[in-house]
Amino acid sequence: MMKGDNQKKDVLKESGKALIVQNNQINEVAKRIQEVEAFLKQLEEDNTENAAVLDGLLNEADNLINEINLSNTDILLNSEEVDLLLDNLEVDDTTHEEITILSEIKSIQGSSETNWDTCISDIENYGYSHNIDLTKDPFEELLTLDQRESIRKTIKDDYTIDVNVTLDKLDYFIAGFSGVASGLIDSFFVGMPGSSKLGNLTNQATDNLVVKFAKKIHQIDKKNGIKFKKNSQKSIDGIASAIGYLEERYKVVYDARYASDLSDLVGVDGIKNKLRPNNHHLLSLAHSPDFIGLFFSILDQFTGKTSLIIDGKLQRATRKGGTEQFQLQGDTFVGKIFCGFCNWLGHIMSDIAGSSGTRGHSNGRIGAGVAPGFYELFLLFDYGSFNVNGDQKSFSQLMTQVYEKGYDARFSAATAIPVVINELFIRALWAMKSKFYHKRDWSESLPFGNKPELRRMLLIGYGALCLVDAGDAFLRSKGETLTFMLHINLIAWGQFSFKALIEVRAMYMKGALDVESMTKDLDMEWSRLYAQI
Question: Taking a C-beta distance cutoff of 8 angstroms, is the pair 331, 353 a contact?
């Protein structure tokens, strides 16, 4: 916990001590007022002649009781209330103890107006003199049994990791049917790059996105009088011109397509025969559409180098021209970071649908787009031996060839469609079953959060989807490794692995608290209470 959080906790704990002292004060004053009321009633019985006067005193006593009926959210009585109590209770020597108590209260109130530390010191002195134990958790002492039970139930229901899952036949049917149906959609409508029905839709959607983005940037540049030598056309009329404009608009230092684009190859092993136009979007880390790519993009723009993964190792080489040809804009460090982000995003948009040299021609080529998010991590595993068309390839080399065959971000978007269908179908049917079959409240039937039954159903659904996907890939590839991997739905397998890890963690942490979720909620509550104090 940070220093500021500790200070908040200390303030709240000290406020809790004040609440305990206040409760003691209220109880003591109420007790004395009851004695005064009993005394006045006795006087009424013995002195009927002073009935009218005594009635007035009784009314004053009732008013005092109402004045003392304070809520626990008020830390101390204010000065006016203390003065009123003192003035009205000074009717007899029998009220001497009451006046003493109220004087102590007034002393604490006065000190709180001057200094918080002095106020807390007076509160602790008061607790010591009246045998009040202030070493215990004040908020625990202030809670009633019902409130403690409510908190215990909340912790058990919301923060305890539970693996006691009870699924019925209908739950298993829903999860299994959804997974199999989604797997069939993946088999018949996704398939592999180059022959995918859904892939054609995502390719077209990507083209439309790039054209709209390029038109918007072109309008802004035209309005501001910004022109470029190669692409000064009046309008964007297709995907090739859109890509061409963005390539010229967002030039970056790390866009090396060949080894010859790099000026120094010292220490960069094996790069000459491995960096090609159809794989430089994968091997160059700055081209990755994720936060890894963003980091290396800004790093390369500042240093004038190109970050590559070759044979499972991170390699850095200098681009010809370096920072002399590509100057990062911005007057301040933050400004340069922002400009670097804009360059990264704009360059990703220029590459995601292929290059201008391959798009817009009659041959229908779609070019090499950027790799799927975090796909570059596969290149770190330069191990194993796989038969690819008669040659033995490591895992990183195998995944490089999978990308070169068209498994880029556009095709990855197509593979995400059956995954989304599976997720939504299971969550929706679970919510309806929970509400209308089990008769739970809508708040309990929302298909979000830590629901053990829903978590297990999603695991089963993704297991069924991956089983169908693997079977289809094996049958269509006939044992050929490259074709097998081209048919594998990487997003589905990633989701299945993630759900499995969560389930294993839940089984290992059975009965333990979800500390991360609890800490997050407690921090929010501490901040709210501290703001009120």
Answer: no
Tell me the CA end-to-end span of the chain in Å, nearest whole number: 20
- Cα 262 from Cα 504, distance rounded (Å): 47
d(CA 130, CA 95): 18
Phi, psi of 146 (to 5 degrees): -65, -40
| Alpha carbon distance 384, 373 (integer Å) | 23
Residue ranges in 47-161 assigned as alpha helix (H): 51-68, 79-89, 96-114, 116-129, 138-142, 145-159
Q: What confidence tens digit (pLDDT) does each residue in 428-449 have? A: 999 999 999 888 888 888 898 7
Q: Residue 533 is encoded by which pair of tokens?
A: 């104090």
Cα dihedral 416, 422, 423, 428 sign: positive
Residue (of 449, 454, 451) closest to 430 by Cα position: 454
Out of 154-163, 192-201, 292-301, 500-509, pick the least confident: 154-163
CA dihedral sign of residues 387, 389, 394, 399:
negative
The pLDDT tens digits for 73-82 are: 444 444 454 4
Instruction: Give CA angle at 153 (149, 154), nearest 5°.
Output: 115
* Distance separating alpha carbons of residues 56 and 315, to the nearest angstrom: 94
Q: Count the Cβ atoms, other than its own, within 10 Å of residue 313.
A: 14
Q: How far is CA 404 from CA 90, 194, 409, in A?
A: 95, 12, 12
DSSP 22: H
- 196: left (phi > 0), else alpha (psi -120 to 50), else beta? beta
- Gap between the Cα atoms of 228 and 331, Å rounded: 22
Q: Between the CA of residue 58 and those of 37, 47, 65, 96, 450, what are the distances in Å?
A: 7, 14, 11, 19, 59
